[in-house]
Amino acid sequence: MKKVLLTLSLALASTVGAQFSSGTVSLGSTGMTVKLDTSSTLATITLTGADTSYLGIGFGNVGSGMSNGADGFIYNASANRDYTFGGIGVTPTADASQDWTQTSNTTAGGIRTVVATRSLSGGAGDTAIANAAGSVNIFFAKGPGTALSSGYHGGGNRGYTTLSMTGTLGTNDLLAESKKVVLYPNPAKETVNFKNADKIKSIDIYEATGRKVKSVQVNGENISVSDLQSGSYYFEVKLKDGSVSYQKLIKE
Q1: Is residue 32 within 8 Å of residue 75, measured between CB atoms?
Q2: Which of 72, 81, 107, 120 could form a disulfide with 51 if both were Cys (CB 3.0 to 4.6 A apart)?
């Protein structure tokens, strides 16, 4: 029974996936914007700003952002994008391992848009980025005038902000969501309804201990659960296309 319960728990967990995004955030008076997106494996930065200047962001709090050892991404005249800061007033140095991969670099109307990806953990010295809701503190700067080479940003060309990461659904996720079998209400007392019930072939219901209590054929859009004792149950929903969906129900 423990094996059955573990299998059901892992299967239920595997159906839960998420992506997060900060949305496009304006960066003070610099004319820059940044967007941070995460998936289960990757972080993606989209950075925009004047196409005549270097554009950079780093990870850190107000007052300590450019401190020695801080991690950053800088678009500049070189081929390097992954940098470590050496402190305020010190030009950042390129990391030995370039973990950011630039995937796009376009200009239009005097604005450059740079897109780069990296694993969530990055490499040695990189700031780990979580694929989760929460806050990410960053600092940012651009070069003065037509400075594409890294150097002093000049007055007014830098600042700090906090990115708020929230969950998102992509096009494929929205399509999958529209076809997903979902039980409701949850918790339930007498009857459980199913969204997309016409896709269901049969249902096996398990107690929290892993013991199967019954199998159900769905005729219509709901089933009775009045005979179940109060507690937690796992529904193994076998679909007509041969796939299996897993749901957890709290029975009142």
Answers
A1: no
A2: 107
Confirm whether 4 is domain-assigned.
Answer: no
CA distances from 111 to 19, 52, 93, 191 (A): 27, 8, 25, 57
Answer whether residue 35 is part of any domain.
Answer: yes
CA distance 34 to 118: 15
Whether 10 is covered by a domain: the verdict is: no
Least Cα distance to 90 among 74, 72, 60, 66 occurs for 66
Residues 6+ apart with CB under 8 A from 91: 150, 151
> How many domains are contained in the chain?
2
E strand or H helix that includes residue 166: strand 158-168
pLDDT, tens digit (0-9, with 9 covering 90-100), for 185-242: 989 899 999 888 888 899 999 887 778 899 988 888 889 999 999 998 888 888 888 8
pLDDT-derived band at 248, boundaries 50, 70, 90: confident
pLDDT interval class at 8 (50, 70, 90)? low
**Does residue 165 share a domain with residue 213?**
no
Q: Residue 96 has which token pair?
A: 């030995």
Which residues form the domain of 237? 181-251
Measured distance CA(129)–CA(125) in Å, rounded: 12
Same domain, 152 and 189: no
Please report whether residue 8 resides in a domain.
no
Burial 125-162 (b: 16+ CB within 10 A, else e): ebbebebeeeebbbbbbbbeeebbebeebeeebbbbbe
Distance CA(108)–CA(50), nearest Å, equals 10
Residues 93 and 199 in one domain: no
